[in-house]
Amino acid sequence: MQGQDWMASDDGQVRACTPPRDWTLLETPYHFHRFLTQVEDVLKETAHEDDCLSAIRHLVRKLALNSYWLQMQHPELSTLDDIAVQTLYDEIGYPLTVQTNTYPPGVASPVHNHGTWGVVTLLKGQEKNTFWQHTPTPEFKDKVMPVEEKVLRPGDVISFSPGAIHCVKAVGDTPLVTFNIYGETHSKARFEFDIKTHQAKNF
Fold first, then answer.
1. How far apart are CA 50 and CA 140, in angstroms?
2. What is the pLDDT of residues 21-40, one digit of tens each?
């Protein structure tokens, strides 16, 4: 599975991080409930955001490496225009969102942030990420500007700070499949940005 680890920050900058060696992550069986418990432990025990996201990236990589079902079970597309989403765990009061997404080739997301941290790994296909920086002006307080692009491939794992702004597009000829885990969403801090009108709305 070996790929690159990345960290996207609020300022639109993306830095490469050293991933753990695959052999250090091998654990059979590595059940999904163990993954969720270990993520919760990281969130409780790790205070600094960078350390927290680094640890969760490693756990996501470990899950993808050891869980054959994750590679094989993903939401099927019903149309060639819409993203298919499968929630993997849902419990009242549970603060995390855990899901797999399938994007048809060529489909892109709006420019947005998540209002919380997130970690995503690519399972199949390729994803072009464009990262944006919030650049408010007296006239347009929600203006954003593109900073850089990265094409992610299977095995890559990327984490996002709560204010990181990006958009994604499935590139290539095959559907894009991703595994996603997000912290507790703060809806008032989650926005979609219109790059033509320089306005934002809750997303």
1. 31
2. 888 999 989 999 999 999 99
**What distance in Å separates the CA atoms of residue 182 and residue 118, rounded to the nearest whole number?**
4
Contact 165, 122 (CB under 8 A): no
Q: Residue 43: is it exposed, middle or buried by C-beta count within 10 angstroms (0-12/13-18/19+)?
A: middle
**Residue entry with tokens 């993520």:** 39
Domain count, the chain: 1
DSSP class of residue 41 equals: H
78 lies in which domain range? 5-186
Burial state string for 172-188 with b = 16 or more CB within 10 A and e = fewer than 16: eeebbbbbbbbbebeee
pTM for the full predicted model: 0.94
> Could you tell me if residue 200 is inside a domain?
no
